[in-house]
Design brief:
13% strand; binds ligand BV8; single chain; 254 residues; alpha/beta; 9 helices; two-stranded antiparallel sheet; six-stranded parallel β-sheet; binds zinc ion; 34% helix; Rossmann fold
Length: 254
């Protein structure tokens, strides 16, 4: 982590009227949640997430896809927000206006205390009927089944039309939720600083968020162990978010 990169970002953060925090799977990495591209383990090792996270995969094998999401939901249920999530929640009260946009489907930002989290790719806590879209409530007892990697669990049935319930996430090839999309893109066009944290910027159209902000004259600071740079008003603080963010807040706001 380069102290100059932190020093360069401090005035941007202190002077910002509207900060957009844009997070990807890397912000949850230090809570032990593997990023989308990390190698899957156990039953999932032979699967490519890109093949599982599609409507076609769910239609072909609903038990396999539902089990994968239940295993991920179980992993998230058993972990805690890390210092990056906590620092982002604290930042809300340090800047005049903050919009938090996440590509993640976990609830770690909410559990760290962040409010009004915009989930561009949906979330694991709001399953719905795959046909009539009726919201489904998880049955608390399900956790007694302890969905380890080697279980195959059938999705519950919709109470209204008896069709399979699906995870409340956005699969590849599906459109992003209209309201979340609009809110996120409006915030990107209005802000003066984007903190882009733990995202490789591969998945579209979410990856446009920093570009929209740059086009509107904002600055972008990437926080990522990998360098992510392509524009004069983009800078990078290389390193893990859970280490960098607490330092950034301390040095900027005391
Ligand atoms: C759509 C939910 C319209 C499911 C996910 C151009 C325009 C529009 C569409 C496309 C396009 N080009 C291609 C497409 C199609 C596709 C797409 O983008 N494909 C990619 C692979 C090229 N996009 C779509 O299909 C989208 N839909 O556009 O609708 C449409 C409609 C019909 C037909 C066509 C188009 C929907 C995309 C949503 C997919 N759903 N998640 C689930 O989770 O199962 S995306 C999923 O992958 C995650 O949510 C995440 O956003 C994304 C990437 O995951 P990761 O790789 O894990 O995370 P990330 O990339 O953020 O990388 C991790 C980073 O963290 C790394 O950089 C690493 O260095 C860093 N890191 C690691 N440790 C740390 C760290 N950083 C900080 N601290 C650390 N400690
Ligand atoms: Zn239904």
């Amino acid at each position: 982590m380069n102290q100059d990169d932190i020093a360069y970002s401090l005035p941007l953060l202190k002077q910002a009227e509207h900060v957009v925090v844009f997070t990807g799977a890397g912000v949850s990495a230090e809570s032990g949640i593997p990023t989308f591209r990390d190698a899957l383990t156990g039953l999932w090792a032979k699967h490519d997430p890109m093949d599982l996270a599609t409507p076609e995969a769910f239609a072909r094998d609903p038990d396999l896809v539902w089990s994968w999401y239940e295993w991920r939901r179980w992993q998230i249920h058993r972990t805690q927000p890390n210092r990056a999530h906590n620092a982002i929640a604290q930042l809300e009260s340090r800047v005049p206006r903050l919009t938090l946009i996440t590509q993640n489907v976990d609830d770690l930002h909410e559990r760290a205390g962040s409010s009004n989290v915009i989930h561009l790719h949906g979330d694991l806590q709001s399953p719905r009927c795959s046909v009539c879209a009726a919201p489904h409530r998880f049955d608390a007892e399900l956790w007694l089944e302890n969905p380890q990697e080697n279980r195959s669990i059938s999705p519950p049935r919709c109470l209204r039309c008896n069709n399979p319930v699906r995870p409340g996430v956005v699969w590849f090839g599906e459109s992003l939720p209209e309201r979340a999309f609009q809110q996120a893109f409006d915030a990107a066009g209005d802000c003066d600083l984007v903190l882009s944290i733990g995202t490789s910027g591969v998945v579209q159209p979410a990856a446009l968020i920093p570009d929209i902000a740059l086009k509107n004259g904002a600055s972008v600071v990437h926080i990522n162990p990998q360098p992510v740079l392509s524009h004069p008003r983009e800078s990078s603080i290389q390193g893990p978010a859970a280490e960098i963010l607490p330092i950034l807040l301390r040095d900027a706001f005391g």
